[in-house]
Amino acid sequence: MVEFKDVSVTYSSGVDALNSINLKINDGDFAFVVGPSGAGKSTLIKLILKEIDATSGTVLVNGFNLSKLKRRKIPKLRRTIGVVFQDFRLIPTMTVYENIAFVLRVIDAPAKYIKSRVPYVISLVGLSHKAKSYPTELSGGEQQRVALARALVNDPQLIIADEPTGNIDPALSYEIVGLLKGINECGTTILMVTHEHDLVRSFGGRIININKGNIAFDEFIGGSNESK
Ligand code: ADP
Questions:
Q1: Which residue is closest in CA terms to ligand 1's atom 27?
Q2: What angle do helix axes 140-152 and 111-124 make, rounded to 10 degrees?
Q3: Ligand 1, residues 16, 41, 43: which to mutate, most atoms within 8 A of Cβ?
Q4: Contacts (Cβ under 8 Å, ≥6 apart) of 30
Q5: Which has the minimum average pLDDT: 169-173, 175-179, 211-215, 224-228?
Q6: Could you tell me if 166 and 195 are in contact, meaning their C-beta atoms sit under 8 angstroms apart?
Q7: Rounded to an integer, what distance in angstroms lies between the CA atom of residue 184 and that of residue 141?
Q8: Using one digit for the tens of pLDDT, what is the confidence trace for 109-120?
Q9: 34 lines ligand 1 (CB under 6 A)
Q10: Which ligand 1 atom is the nearest neighbour of the CA of 18?
Q11: Domain ranges (residues) in the chain
Q12: Helix 140-152 vs helix 96-106: crossing angle, to nearest 10
């Protein structure tokens, strides 16, 4: 669950990036966040991950009140969130399997669990046949599917996808959003930032439109192609 109550962010430069935002994303929701460059979308995501703090207001994420969260507890918050970036951020010297297993190794997950969990999430994104490949041997769409599996492996409550289709073929973008929708249907909350209006129109759902640090609208639209 993500809740913003009267949240404002003013950067030290004096720029007001968010102006008294109120927003609630319930467990199990799927929401697109759209808006022009400079609107405040990245600021919103940085707040959720506690990379920055709100200048005023309250941010609640997965049961944590972020203004009260001690620095040493930040990793605990972040373990409840999986993040997918526009530029994939895979480790080039590691195979698909190793990139994903790494996430569990750093939190000292038992070896037996890693051995069963990693192949499972790789199969969820349809890449079992590429488990031993390196990122450079994969297409952009495949690399993003690996990043998605990596975001999923720790079974997070929330997945934040920050322009996940920005660097891949438009046709494959539908595949990535389709996978995110499938993950959402299994109960994970998804917040996806995107510039791609065609994609949003096609899938439909909750659209949170941010403009100049304000929520311009927050509503549900029907998709033009619900079957995708
Ligand atoms: P978006 O992700 O929608 O493009 P951002 O959240 O990155 O928008 O930016 C919102 C506003 O805050 C913009 O005016 C941007 O220039 C400003 N901004 C973003 N990051 C910083 C920063 N670290 N310091 C100062 N101003 C910033």
A1: 11
A2: 140
A3: 43
A4: 180, 181, 184, 189, 190, 192, 205, 206
A5: 224-228
A6: yes
A7: 19
A8: 999 999 999 999
A9: no
A10: 10
A11: 90-155
A12: 20
Side by side, the strands of the sheet bearing 64-65 are 16-25, 2-10, 56-61, 64-65
- Taking the model in full, what pTM does it have? 0.95
Atom 20 of ligand 1 has which residue's CA nearest to it? 43
Burial of 65 (0-12, 13-18, 19+ CB in 10 A): exposed
Question: Backbone dihedral region of 13: left (phi > 0), alpha (psi from -120 to 50 degrees) or beta?
Answer: alpha
Give the Å distances, CA to CA, from 17 to 48, 79, 174, 184, 191.
15, 26, 30, 29, 19
pLDDT digit string (tens) for 128-148?
999 999 999 999 999 999 999
Nearest CA to ligand 1 atom 7: 42
| Residue nearest (by alpha carbon) to ligand 1 atom 23 | 11
